Design the sequence.
């Protein structure tokens, strides 16, 4: 029987599939760390108080990248190049989700609208990250090899999502509400399409590594398309709502360090 737990357990138990999974995850987290660090460095003077939170967000993402690499090292594995069609972060940037890398590589300060756009994009992608890590936490929190990493990353992603909600509400109250809702909707509709495409690509690679029969690969692909159909009709709406989180000032303190998984 196919289930999220059995599927990930199969990926976890095989060195090459686990290697690809961790390599994809580490690459995306490291990219997110760089992006947040650049945004923090270019925050407009008017929003300078936000810079430490963006810096912590980036530090958390860097930490997650180091954790995934440490999990590989613990198994005696090296990272592999990430296939372009599985690179979620790169594909998001290519489709306009997140601030353009050309802008982040310059020394020109960002505008307040840029920060609003960054937060709206982050609110959508952090929803996905929080949900994915919650799923792993549900099934693997007590796993001897990855349990500690899953719990730490899941907690961080929940903090990131709470931070996005709180800061976007602050900007909405300051008069940016219409722009926020427009950006959230556009970002959510683009993200669910990219997530579908990346999921299909990742499962195709995993199927080749693990030797899945055609029927199993077809069933997984059908499931991914079904999730997309649901998200396209109604599921995207969960990514665009805003409410004051229970975790207030979730990124107000220093980032935690990556534990030693040796």
Sequence:
């Amino acid at each position: 029987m196919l289930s999220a737990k059995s599927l990930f357990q199969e990926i976890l138990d095989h060195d090459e599939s686990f290697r690809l999974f961790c390599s994809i995850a580490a690459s995306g987290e490291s990219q997110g760390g760089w992006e947040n660090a650049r945004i923090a460095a270019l925050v407009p003077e008017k929003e300078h108080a936000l810079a430490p939170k963006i810096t912590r967000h980036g530090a958390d993402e860097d930490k997650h990248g180091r954790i995934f690499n440490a999990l590989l090292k613990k198994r005696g594995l090296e990272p592999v190049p990430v296939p372009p069609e599985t690179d979620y972060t790169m594909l998001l940037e290519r489709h306009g989700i997140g601030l353009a890398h050309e802008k982040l590589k310059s020394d020109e300060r960002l505008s307040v609208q840029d920060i609003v756009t960054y937060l709206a994009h982050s609110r959508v992608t952090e929803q996905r990250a929080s949900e994915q890590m919650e799923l792993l936490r549900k099934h693997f929190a007590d796993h001897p090899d990855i349990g500690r990493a899953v719990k730490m990353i899941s907690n961080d992603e929940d903090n990131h999502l709470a931070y996005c909600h709180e800061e976007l509400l602050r900007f909405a109250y300051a008069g940016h509400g219409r722009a926020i809702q427009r950006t959230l909707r556009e970002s959510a509709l683009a993200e669910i399409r990219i997530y579908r495409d990346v999921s299909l690509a990742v499962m195709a690679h995993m199927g080749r590594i693990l030797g899945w029969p055609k029927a199993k690969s077809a069933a997984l692909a059908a499931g991914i398309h079904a999730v997309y159909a649901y998200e396209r009709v109604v599921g995207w709406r969960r990514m665009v709502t805003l409410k004051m989180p229970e975790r207030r000032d979730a990124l107000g303190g220093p980032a935690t360090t990556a534990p030693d998984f040796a």
About this structure: The chain is about 70% helix and 0% strand. Helices lie at 4-13, 15-41, 51-74, 88-94, 101-105, 112-140, 147-210, 214-233. The longest helix spans residues 147-210. The chain has a mean pLDDT of 95.
